C-alpha cells in the first residue's frame, strides 16, 4: 500500500473538526497527524470527544502553522471565517495543500468578499488561485489545486438543485428562489443564545432575509453555470433539528414540456454523491444524516411552468467535512468516494 496521506485539522474541536475526525478514522489512505485547539491544547482528543475513544489517539496541539506543516501533507481548516485567511498562506508557502472549510477563499472577487464579510481580506493574492470545491462542477481543477475553498452548506444544497437547469438554459435565471432550513449544528459549537435548547427547540424562524452572506457565494456559482446574470432570493431558516439542510428551490421553466427528470439524471449520472430520486419524491433530511449524499427530487406541480426542486444534505457532511474529504481525495488522485461510502443513519 502507498504511504497514507498525513492530515492535519486546524480547528479540530468544533463540529466540522469532530466530523472530519469521524470520517478520517476509517479512511483507508489518510492518517490524522495533528489536530489543533487553543482552549484544549495538550488534552487528549478522546477526552473532549468520547465518541472517538479507540479511534483517535492524539492530543490537541496549539494552532501553529509551522508545526502543522512539519506533520502534514494536507490541512483542513475548520476555523471561523476571518481566521483561516491569516493561517492559510503560511501553510501553502511551506508546501502543504489546504482545504479551507471557512468562507475565506470562496468568493473570488475581493470587493464582494469584503462587503459581505465586513473585513479586509488578509490574503487577497490567494483569492484567485483558490479553487471552489464543488466536485460536481470543478473536479478537474480541484485535482491540481493547492488551495480548495470548500463550499458553504446552504450553497451546496442550493447550487446542486439549480445547476442542471441553469447550465441547460432551462429556466428564467432572474426568477430563482431558494427557501432553505438548517439544523442548529450549522452555527458551530460556540455558545450562542439563539441556539439554547429553550430558544431553538420546538420553533422555526427565518433569518438574514435582507441578505445572508451565502447569497454572493450562491450567485457566483450560479452566474458561472448560467454564463450570465442570475437573480436569487435566498431565505435561510433555523429549524429545530441538529443536522440537515432542506432547500426548496423554485424556478420558472422556459418550456413546460421539457424532460426535467431526464436532465437531472443525465447531469449527475457520474456524481457518486448526488441521488436524483424519482420525480415527485419527498426527500427528508433524515435520509442523508451522517452521509455525503445530496438527494434531489424534481416536482412540476400541475405540469406547468413552475418547477420545485427539493434538495437535502447533512450540513456537516456534504455541507462541510464529507465534501472536504471528497476534495482531498481528488487532490490526492484517489477515487472521489474513498472513505465516504457509508449509508446514512436512520432514525
Ligand atoms: N457547522 C457547519 O455546518 C459548517 C461550518 N462551516 C464552516 O467551517 C468552519 C468551522 O465551523 P464549525 O466547526 O461549525 O465551528 P466551531 O465553532 O464548532 O469550531 C471552530 C473551531 O475553530 C477553532 N478556533 C476558533 N477561533 C480560532 C482562532 N482564532 N485560531 C485558531 N483556532 C480557532 C476552535 O477551537 P479553539 O477555540 O479551542 O481554538 C474550534 O476548533 C467555519 O468557518 C464554518 O463557518 C462550513 C460548512 C458547514
Ligand atoms: C444555522 C446557521 O447559523 N448556519 C450558518 C451557516 C453555516 C455555515 O456552514 O456557514 P459557512 O459554510 O459559510 O461557514 C449561518 O447561517 O451563518
TrEMBL record:
It is an enzyme of class 1 (oxidoreductase). Pathway: Amino-acid biosynthesis; L-arginine biosynthesis; N(2)-acetyl-L-ornithine from L-glutamate: step 3/4. GO terms for cellular component: cytoplasm. Residues 6-145 form the Semialdehyde dehydrogenase NAD-binding domain. Pfam families: Semialdhyde_dh, Semialdhyde_dhC_1. InterPro entries: AGPR, AGPR_AS, AGPR_dimerisation_dom, AGPR_type-1, NAD(P)-bd_dom_sf, Semialdehyde_DH_NAD-bd. The active site is at residue 153. Its main location: cytoplasm. Transmembrane segments: none annotated. Its EC number is 1.2.1.38. GO terms for biological process: L-arginine biosynthetic process. It is found in: Cytoplasm. GO terms for molecular function: N-acetyl-gamma-glutamyl-phosphate reductase activity; NAD binding; NADP+ binding. The keyword Membrane does not apply. SUPFAM superfamilies: Glyceraldehyde-3-phosphate dehydrogenase-like, C-terminal domain, NAD(P)-binding Rossmann-fold domains. Signal peptide: none annotated. Belongs to the NAGSA dehydrogenase family. Type 1 subfamily. This is N-acetyl-gamma-glutamyl-phosphate reductase.
